[in-house]
């Protein structure tokens, strides 16, 4: 059965106070829902998105080929998160460039596009905005919140900000905060964007420019960190591009490895060609200010900071049951980081399941079809479903 | 005893044929020597440099404070490579921006600065140029060649290009070629440089500009890969800058963690401040075309390519004795890569020593003072010295 997705939008007139002290006047949230909310409104699952994704989590848009949601392999009829049983909600976060109010929208205070003046939003702010959407949908308690990477951070934050509204939390390929190395990669990406002369201090819309050079570099850096060294070697290795090799073949067709063209600026290796393609594609659709906002939300997230760095103290407020999943070759959000969360939850005697999946794909693995990973999530949702059926 | 270094330069009138098929007409090599060449000319050690270093390997320049060579902790009187016993030579590679002929020099064919027209040079080309310098110095056989990182690649290449001229090879924190991930990081750095509007296709000298934005990004990426995740966390962690914290302190001086300023473009974390500083410093002195050339030399190096990827076949020509050293937290040139070289040499029944040093500093460790590392190199050179004294 094909799942048809229909994007919706809701306007919120009340100002949203933000962690920075600023507040956001009247804003829109784009969202999609799949499946049916049951009569007792207990089967809702909120799915939180990561850096470059959106509310379009599952299904396809009617009449649009290749319009599958970003987690369509995970969510849908008969899939691990089964929309025959659960009412699934995807929300686009504030500050994004995919529909919810963000830097490309008008600032009601000035009548101008926000641009760089869009307030800094944090994971906590996003969760507060998501909670208001649930209020509007009449959902008091979520059967589960689920997310990977930055989406996992939102999931974790849900269990701390609204402990009574979350029964289960699925925190996948995530971390209790970024390491210095993670922040460093974000910082380089941001510097590439803000030092692009087309950025104009974040007000490039008025100048009719787009800081594509910076966005390309940012995306290339991102892609390197999403993949494992192993999978990169397997996919691309040190292979020269076909065109380069063709040039180096002699008249008999055999390869003269010493005679290919040497160049400092041309694309010679396949990995270069892949990265340039990814960078170019991203620069066509992603907003530079959104990139800055979302990477900053990643940097700032640190629920233990208010507890002197003690994660066990910080997670004491959580009362949900947890499933954590990590992937062995993920060096961006390594298994070690998931185990920190597991430990802190166990210190609080919380109910925690943890799966460390042996997958070669690095951080990207959380979006891919590893059978063991899919199986773990499927069984977890089956047990939630059993719980729901068992309750009055 | 303080070692005083004196830079020298030598002109080579004969054209140097390059691996690309091009050749370099009349060129200069900058170099320094330390210690005394013995009567039999058997105690010479060539030290090869990596990406941003030079011929100024050891000692200081007379009257210049803080002018120590880049490997001054390793090389000098009484140091692991003891200049009381060995005659040590540092050479600046072609294409560099520190004295030897490079993109900033005049192209004799055109009378213009080379810029982007400087021919692509490879590790093999550098070794050929170094061999000509040794010819000029009257040195037929080297007691040892030594280098770290890209310098280790030159060392390895010496044993293949001039097997009869090298008795010992010290290959430190190196690899038989770059992985796809290594190439990917180089490619992002290069894209940052060549897409900087001040690059002008590599002919920025004529435009009176310097592509500093690109150089800064390149260096920031480099620095992340030189350090280990652990050492970054230890040095910087998630610490906010003092100024940010000061602002967040309330009247009583206690920290209100919720109230520091939130910003997408300011420097908030100490790691950011460190990276920006490193990037700014580098952009002041390093040449953009040199950066492209040297990273390309890294990408292209692959002695096994001509042997269908079989490193054991490729290293069959080497007859030197080897010391390989790697560092446990080096993820740029990991111990696994050094072990590939060790294995290939053992397949050829070569004399190989290998030390895997448990050091926290990542790739940078090869420049630092780890006592076990220093001890291993010291003993190795002592045994070379004993060999020299034992010979006729």
Structural class of chain A: alpha/beta
* CATH homologous superfamily placement of the largest domain in chain A: Alpha/Beta hydrolase fold, catalytic domain
Q: Biggest interface, and residues per chain?
A: A-B, 64 and 64 residues
| Spatial arrangement of strands, main beta sheet of chain A | 2-5-10-6-11-12-13-14
Over the alpha carbons, how many angstroms does the gyration radius of chain A reach?
22 Å
The helical percent of chain A reads 25-40%
Termini Cα gap of chain A: 30 Å
Q: Given the C-alpha coordinates, what overall shape of chain A results?
A: globular
- Overall number of strands of chain A: 14
How much strand of chain A?
5-15%
Q: What is the CATH C level class of the largest domain in chain A, in words?
A: Alpha Beta
CATH fold naming of the largest domain in chain A: Rossmann fold
Structure annotation, total helices of chain A: 12
Assigned CATH architecture of the largest domain in chain A = 3-Layer(aba) Sandwich
**Low-confidence sequence ranges of chain A:** none
GO molecular function, one term (chains A, B): homoserine O-acetyltransferase activity
Binding site for substrate (chains A, B): 219, 364
Catalytic activity (chains A, B): L-homoserine + succinyl-CoA = O-succinyl-L-homoserine + CoA
EC number (chains A, B): 2.3.1.46
């Amino acid at each position: 059965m094909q799942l048809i997705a229909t994007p919706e939008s809701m306007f919120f007139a009340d100002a949203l106070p933000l962690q920075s002290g600023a507040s956001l006047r009247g804003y829109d949230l784009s969202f999609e829902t799949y499946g049916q909310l049951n009569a007792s409104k207990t089967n809702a699952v909120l799915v939180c998105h990561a850096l470059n994704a959106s509310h379009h989590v599952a299904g396809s848009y009617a009449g649009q080929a290749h319009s599958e949601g970003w987690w369509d392999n995970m969510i849908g009829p008969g899939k691990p998160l089964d929309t025959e049983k659960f009412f699934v909600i995807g929300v686009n976060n504030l500050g994004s460039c995919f529909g919810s109010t963000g830097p490309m929208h008008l600032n009601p205070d000035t009548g101008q596009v926000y641009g760089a003046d869009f307030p800094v939003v944090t994971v906590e702010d996003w969760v507060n905005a998501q909670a208001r959407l649930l209020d509007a949908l009449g959902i008091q308690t979520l059967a589960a919140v689920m997310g990977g990477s930055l989406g996992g951070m939102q999931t974790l934050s849900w269990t701390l900000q609204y402990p009574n509204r979350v029964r289960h939390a699925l925190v996948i390929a995530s971390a209790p905060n970024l390491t210095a190395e993670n922040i460093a990669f974000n910082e380089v990406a941001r510097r590439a964007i803000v030092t692009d002369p087309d950025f104009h201090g974040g007000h490039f819309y008025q100048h009719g420019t787009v800081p594509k050079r910076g966005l390309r570099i940012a995306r290339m850096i991102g892609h390197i960190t999403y993949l494992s060294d192993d999978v990169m070697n397997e996919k691309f290795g040190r292979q020269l591009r076909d065109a380069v090799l063709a040039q180096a073949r002699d008249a008999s067709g055999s390869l003269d490895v010493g005679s290919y063209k040497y160049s400092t600026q041309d694309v010679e290796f396949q990995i270069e060609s892949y990265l340039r393609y990814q960078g170019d594609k991203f620069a066509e659709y992603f907003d530079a200010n959104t990139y800055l906002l979302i990477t900053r939300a990643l940097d700032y997230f640190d629920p233990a900071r208010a507890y002197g760095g003690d994660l066990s103290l910080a997670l004491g407020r959580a009362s949900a049951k947890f499933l954590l999943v990590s992937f062995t070759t993920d060096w961006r959000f390594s298994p070690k980081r998931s185990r920190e969360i597991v430990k802190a939850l166990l210190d609080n005697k919380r109910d925690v399941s943890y799966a460390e999946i042996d997958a070669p794909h690095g951080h990207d693995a959380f979006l891919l079809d590893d059978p063991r990973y899919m199986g773990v999530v499927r069984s977890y949702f089956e047990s939630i479903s059993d719980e729901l059926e068992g309750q009055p």
